[in-house]
Amino acid sequence: MTINIILLGPPGAGKGTQARKLVEERGLVQLSTGDMLRAARSSGTEMGKRVAEVMDRGELVTDEIVIGLIREKLSEGGNGFIFDGFPRTLAQADALGQLLDETGMVLDAVIEMQVDDEALVRRITGRYTCGNCGEVYHDETKPTAKHGVCDVCGSTDLRRRADDNEDSLKTRLLEYYKKTSPLIGYYYAKGKLAPVDGLAEMDEVARQIGRVLPVSSEIATGT
Ligand code: AP5
Q: Does domain 3-28+78-212 have CATH number 3.40.50.300?
């Protein structure tokens, strides 16, 4: 069964963590606009430099750029997509709707990952990521088994993100509440919204998402 879902939630809600689990367990393709933009910034192009400044401040990159990135990825095809960190504005949500219509795809569910702001600060300031395979860790809730070595690929290239500091996080949260949280109502009105408890332990969040998916797929396909 092909499933297309959006993971919606503030910075640190656990979108990337759950997206990676879904890739592993269901063979879906993760489309993270954050990862795509980080790849663009490390390319050293003019566009990459402009993107880096915006990201480091914690602001949103223009709709035009991110919609272009998603359009390109969707045209490559795939057996079901997880939209991680996209859409983030109403204009992006409308554009995604159009892109899915054009390619004959259906949006099955929008998983709203509910968390509180205090937990987000702890999660973001404790996060680090493997620069080689992208596995996400946390100082307290998910440390590597061996200090300084990725559990998945054995790389010692473990990094903290430039925007994972309290100042940028404040701006990222404001951007979320001003520009992204209206999408909760937008997708509720479309009958796609499925809230999960993002504060639960990681495997429990995954179970809650798993319980949502088949039901939402049935709604979307009318079965
Ligand atoms: P992006 O990379 O998308 O960052 P974000 O939305 O701020 O989300 P994060 O990646 O910070 O958090 P997450 O929800 O994935 O949490 P994670 O699983 O890592 O965007 C970065 C920037 O790019 C934006 O600020 C913007 O500038 C730009 N951008 C991106 N997309 C854009 C768009 N569409 N439009 C415009 N601009 C865009 O988890 C966090 C930590 O918590 C980890 O350490 C993890 O181990 C831990 N954790 C996860 N789940 C749990 C749990 N259940 N219990 C305990 N710990 C947990």
A: yes
